[in-house]
Design a protein that fits this description.
5 strands, globular, 4 helices, five-stranded mixed beta sheet, single chain
Length: about 160
């Protein structure tokens, strides 16, 4: 997404919000990574030590946001500021008990708004793959993201 004006926000969901984890807390990121990613084959960070997690989340470039609905934590987002005004939605997802409730569009809309509010943002981007939730790509496209590149990976990975 190359412009804030490209965002096509989803309808707001009552009692839904994103709350920044501040100060950074590696245990929160680890817990949500494991719980959100369990159904989607997220495995790259599973071998990380506590020190690895702390080094990751305590970086100035990273912010973590907890999604809440009706007072309950339902998911999380990691936003990473990168060179040249890029902001990556590096991890984004809901806990399994909250799939299919219409929260993903609102959550993504709020995350994109936050990304555009960061100083110097020129582009907001996200990576997805066939292991992600079946509605992920459609949600990204509905919010205004455009496909940049499609790669066909090794099916044995």
């Amino acid at each position: 997404m190359l412009s804030r004006e490209d965002l096509q926000p989803a309808d707001a969901v009552e009692s839904f919000g994103l709350v920044r984890v501040n100060p950074a807390n590696a245990a929160i990121n680890r817990r949500f990574y494991e719980r959100v990613g369990a159904d989607w084959n997220w495995r790259d960070r599973l071998p990380w030590s506590d020190m690895d997690w702390r080094a990751h989340v305590e970086r100035e470039q990273l912010s973590t946001w907890l999604a809440t609905h009706a007072g309950e934590q339902v998911g999380y987002v990691e936003l990473e500021q990168q060179p040249e005004g890029n902001v990556q939605i590096s991890y984004f997802g809901l806990l399994p008990d909250h799939y299919g409730k219409g929260l993903g569009g609102t959550m993504l809309s709020m995350a994109v708004e936050i990304a555009w509010s960061l100083p110097g943002t020129q582009r907001v981007w996200v990576h997805t793959c066939s292991d992600d939730h079946p509605a992920a790509l459609a949600n990204y496209e509905k919010r205004g993201f455009k496909c940049f590149r499609v790669e066909n990976g090794d099916p044995t990975d």
